[in-house]
What does this fold into?
Amino acid sequence: MNSKAYYGEYGGQFVSESLMNTLDEIDKAFEEAIRDPEFIKEYHYYLKQYVGRETPLYLAERLSEKYGTKIYLKREDLNHTGAHKINNVIGQILLAKRMGKTRIIAETGAGQHGVATATGAALFNMECTVYMGKEDVKRQALNVMRMEMLGATVVSVESGSNTLKDATNEAIRTWAKTAEDTFYIIGSAIGPYPYPKMVKEFQAVISREAKRQHMEAEGRLPDVVMACVGGGSNSIGMFADFIDEPGVELIGVEAAGKGIDTNEHAASMAKGRPGVLHGTRSYLLQDEDGNIQLAHSISAGLDYPGVGPEHAYLHDMGRAKYVPITDEEAMDALMELTQPP
Amino acid sequence: MPNNRIETQLNKLSERGEKAFITYITAGLPDMDKTAQIIKAQESTDIIELGIPFSDPIADGPVIQQASYEAICAGATLSGTFKLMKSLRDEGVEKPIIFMLYYNTIVSCGIENFVRKCHEAGVDGLIVPDLPKEEQESLKAALDGDDRTILIELVSPVSKDRVPEILDGARGFVYCVSAMGVTGQGGTFHSTIKEYLSYVKSVSPIPVMMGFGIREASDVAQVKDTIDGAIVGSHFINLMRDAGFDPEAAREYTDRFKKELNAL
It folds into this structure.
């Protein structure tokens, strides 16, 4: 067992033998890169000049007043391409370049990670293929158009449920055949080690900024840090610099879809049990035979049947608390944030 | 004499100077009765790989993915496959049978519980394509000390210096992946296939089987002096599908393949 690949009993490297040397190669290159000041400098250059960081930590005044507390919003939506996904893409694509890879592949659900990857690939002049479930290709036609405009090839995956997990399966299969010249950019805090660690490293910029911004605004750490959890990239990035601050409560919000007592949700920690999928051991929505169940959320980015292994560990340790929120509750909150009182 | 059907069979073949012929089918495609008939019809096949369908078969190509998906839709389960195994053994079928399955199927069943069921049902070996050497500890601990069910190791053309380590203590035979990890590549050989198989053969203390992408015995003619046997997966499923899962078609194909393999 490769003990550094584990977060407690979660994580690992459950991939075919043909990818083990590839993972080792990525691990070595990654560890070297993050200790290389030139690499870090380049990464931060692109985050600032291309992505548009830092993002604001905005005090939602009326909302704060209404609930008798202070609520700050970390505006990751203001990044180039509209989500936090680009933070990780820039990091991994610079690593791919450093390793001499010429092709990039990625999986995408809603299309956010696909668009971010296609954007990064265009920026660094690399060939890019994005795997997307046939259902998602239909539902997210606009993002397919954006990816194609950026020069990426979008492969519509027709197998199993035709959604994100099937797109991920297909990306892994392609990677196993082409790893010599191809780098697989995983968008979520999942996958075999070192992916969960890499994604956290490249998303940790969210909490690094937020911590400093909060200190500047309030002169103290926040009481609670909260983020939504699908696979868990945004939330692990938001938690990263607060994990070792015992006074800060961490709350992850899972998608309860139509309710955790229905079969249509994505609450893998509330309703799943530990298992192995996409190279990692973590909480999974699965049936009694261990077959993976379909996840549902009104948010196309959260409908993944598993969760990153570090979240599973933080959950079991009690360091972070995870709560399920239904589609209806999420929509109500969105409207409350959007409309005048 | 080893207390394992696979190893006993391989010893017998080696004494006769024959190469092993191994086929793969997905359990429950189209249903468990047909699977039983297809197994029983293959008198010439030396070892049978029985695939347990899984929702996310990341190491398989399109043919086995589809087979897996259809079998699940038709109600195939792990417990149903154990039941099938038990009834085959009760009927006196002594052919070595290997379960090929994904690790989550084992984890979900509970590792020790799963191994006990394998012993009870007469499962002779396990191939777990998403369980590399580094992650085998728990399963090996559960299998240890009882020869009835053994773990079969896989190697790939990119395994290189990992091969000796993987084969240290390996049982039965070594399964060589030949198209960079995925089945159904239409007989396309990895560019350095000959060197790769020769290398594995040179360091392997156990028989070397070439898997993935083989259709006919003639496909392995170029490497016949290197390998100890051939595994046919995707092609056999296609063939069965085209024949409407007629057990007679399985008999004819496997009789002919084995005969041609012996004549190479």
